[in-house]
Amino acid sequence: MICYIFLAGLAVLFYVFVIHIYAKLWLLKLKHGKDVEISYFPLFGDYFYLTKSFKKYGDAMEIFKQRYQKNPNIKFVASNILNKVFLFIHDPEYYKSVLVNHQSYTKVEILYHPKLSSTSILFGEPDKVKQQRNLLGEAFTFEKLKQRTPIINEVLLQKLEKEDKTDVLDFLTKTSSEIIIKTFFCKELQDIIVQGNDITTEMIDLITQLGNMQMNDLYVSVKLALLGRKAFGFFPSKKEKLLDARIDRLIDGTLMPIIKNKIANYKANQNQDFLDLYVNAYLNQKPNEPKITELELCQLFVSIVSAGTDTSSHQIAITLYYLGIDRKAQEEIRQELINVVGDEVDIQPQHLSKLVLLNAFIYEAFRVKSTVIQPLTRIAKESHYIQNLKIEKGTYVAALTTAPSWSSKYFNDPNKFDYKRWLSQRPIQEDNGYVFVPFSAGGRNCIGQHMAMMTMKIMIGQILRKYDVIVDQTVQVTFPLVLFIQYSPKNLVKLEKRKL
Ligand code: HEM
């Protein structure tokens, strides 16, 4: 009897996780023919090939790139995650619709935590996000950010003098986080120590561990895929409990007292950092607007620092890697810096638009190796259509914004790293405005993109003025995906002080 029940259970599981989902994918194939490629793998779907790709080629994205290059006309890949359909949209005309109609989706819970991000700009409800983007948008315009270039120069130059740069990525992460905190937040938040770590080291480490656990721990990832946000607090594993305790210490023990103090002592028309803007809105809430809570103020700090730090530092590190590979380009860009910036200590706003070679190189590094491979995957809230493709409620949808960069349909000789392509009149063929969007696009694009470009130019520019970027090309390099694409080994890129 027990044996029959067991077999019946197995049959149900086989139906749900294999036959049913496989049939759904083949129905899509029948309907969309050459527009779609099927990629089924039990439970893990296309994500299985990330590991396979890394093992086979030393590059987590290589299999996906080769697949698209073999079949450049596919509009999307239909895959699965557990028993759900997962669509990886490659065609910019199709993913444009996902990015523009962002209200039709929620974000998957990777990097989500109720205490860390439930009301944050990254994961809040649409009305909340709209309110936050309105409040913060003004501070992120290029005109406002221009005033912050002295801080970026100062923090970087000091750190270049004093800090160890053996692990360049680690150096860049510490520098980027200090720049963001000093640019947008008050003194009280700059010098906090949590558990023996400075606040940004603690926050970045927490968020990296959270993301890794949600993606790579089988128990946690299956729980999330089945229960969504209800998974939090549901039979937590030991690892989850430890992380929850650290998050409590960060929010309740550290940030909340500072926020409460800031609210209690708020004086209007003072320096106006992000918290001042927000405290002002908190104190002057209108009944018809989404409520602003004290937790939201804590989450604002965490989300801005975490969204801006690792993204910038990984992309700068990979750009330095390519500069180390292409020493001729490095010299050309250095010469441009000498011509444009001369003997001035700071790289200033008026220099930025004249650094065209540096800008082109940064773009090409984004095109060839965007360390953020796609915006977070979305889940369809309701059934709807993208052109003739029906997206059922509950479908996972990833706008694979890196895909067009692999295709000769959009870029001439796409596998070649050729930064000068960006100097031509038309670097992108067949551009619908969504082909090259390293900062995503539409209503949920990167609010910090001007800050990111400005920081990247100043940081890379100052490094090139003072250091030679060296990559030992006899060392075998690999590109794992650890939330971000990064190079390995960590000490591959070296900065050697130039003799002036
Ligand atoms: C090279 C650096 C950066 C890259 C490649 C990057 C990329 C992105 C991408 C692709 C998104 C869309 C995410 C999604 O829809 O799931 C995003 C969103 C966001 N980014 Fe950035 N980002 C960078 C730097 C920054 C900086 C410096 C800040 C702030 C100081 C920042 C703040 C944000 C915020 C708050 C969001 C969420 C916006 C929303 O959901 O409405 N980012 N970023």
From TrEMBL:
Chain segments annotated as transmembrane: 6-27
MF-aspect GO terms: heme binding; iron ion binding; monooxygenase activity; oxidoreductase activity, acting on paired donors, with incorporation or reduction of molecular oxygen
Source organism, top-level taxon: Eukaryota
Keywords, comma-separated and alphabetical: Heme, Iron, Membrane, Metal-binding, Monooxygenase, Oxidoreductase, Transmembrane, Transmembrane helix
Family per record: Belongs to the cytochrome P450 family.
PANTHER family assigned to the protein according to its UniProt record, in alphabetical order: BIFUNCTIONAL ALBAFLAVENONE MONOOXYGENASE_TERPENE SYNTHASE, CYTOCHROME P450 FAMILY 4
Record-given protein name: Cytochrome P450
UniProt organism field: Paramecium sonneborni
Organismal lineage: Eukaryota, Sar, Alveolata, Ciliophora, Intramacronucleata
